[in-house]
Design goal:
This protein has 5 helices and 9 strands; from the N terminus they run H-E-E-E-E-H-E-E-H-H-H-E-E-E. With 254 residues, it is an alpha+beta fold. Strand 3 and strand 4 form a beta hairpin.
Length: 254
């Protein structure tokens, strides 16, 4: 049975390359309670390693990072790279002075992460509070970055509008301003391999309160398991973000 076309809709019921408007069925795996590790950190490491080394998922570290601004409640999302998983949480790096995510977190310390690994039909969602990494932790990662990326961290006022400046020429859209700032940063650090970390740049750790593991199944009857941090009775979660904290595991309806 085919659906009637509605010319007012630019996109309607897309289904990849299929013409019948029916989405792909997920058949590559199942997930049961007995397969899960007691710790969501260990479980994530198992899934991530499989995605990277066995299933050859393209850039499995790619993750949607979402924040919201108070008091408006407006949500913003962007794709970033997971750079570390440590005993407290999930770590990303960014500009923490100019970016939209920085202004959101300044008003609301809660954030979420969402991973999607198409090749294995799996998702992982993380919700938690954010905390900044120390300067020492940040420098360890910053020194591993390509030189151009370290220069770019100094040059870019992330998320700020780039207005064309006088002399940039007709049709300039602001790119010349960015490239000029890059040249200035290159000149500043010319011949210097040990480029310092900008004080406005650094790591952020999402300390999870909830982690969900999702395995696609046929007919949209997916397997979903949620890890929730256990409260010890005084309003404080046990483990304080440590890998050995207590977690409650529950199957969720798809």
């Amino acid at each position: 049975m085919s659906a009637a076309k509605d010319s007012s809709k630019l996109i309607f019921a897309p289904a990849g390359t299929h013409a019948n408007h029916q989405a792909d069925q997920y058949t590559k795996g199942t997930l049961t309670r007995s397969q899960l590790h007691p710790s969501p950190f260990a479980q994530f490491h198992t899934w991530f390693t499989h995605a990277r080394d066995t299933a050859h998922v393209h850039q499995p570290e790619t993750v949607c990072f979402s924040t919201s601004h108070l008091p408006t409640g407006r949500v913003s999302s962007r794709y970033v790279y997971l750079k570390e998983l440590d005993p407290r949480g999930f770590v990303i790096y960014s500009n923490w002075l100019h970016s939209r995510k920085a202004s959101d977190i300044a008003t609301n310390p809660w954030a979420s992460l969402a991973f999607w690994w198409h090749e294995v039909e799996r998702q992982v969602r993380v919700e938690g509070r954010v905390e900044r990494l120390s300067g020492e932790e940040t420098k360890r990662y910053f020194d591993l970055r390509a030189r151009g990326s370290r220069i770019g961290a100094w040059a870019s006022e992330q998320s700020r509008v780039l207005e064309p400046e006088e002399g940039d020429g007709a049709g300039s859209d602001g790119r010349a301003v960015l490239e000029r700032r890059v040249r200035e940063a290159e000149e500043r650090f010319n011949g210097q391999e040990d480029i310092p970390v900008p004080e406005f740049w650094g790591g952020l750790r999402v300390v999870p309160e909830m982690v969900e593991f999702w395995q696609g199944r046929e007919s949209r009857l997916h397997d979903r398991f949620r890890y929730s941090r256990v409260d010890n009775g005084d309003g404080k979660a046990m483990g304080n973000g440590e890998m050995d904290g207590e977690w409650k595991i529950e199957r969720l309806s798809p």
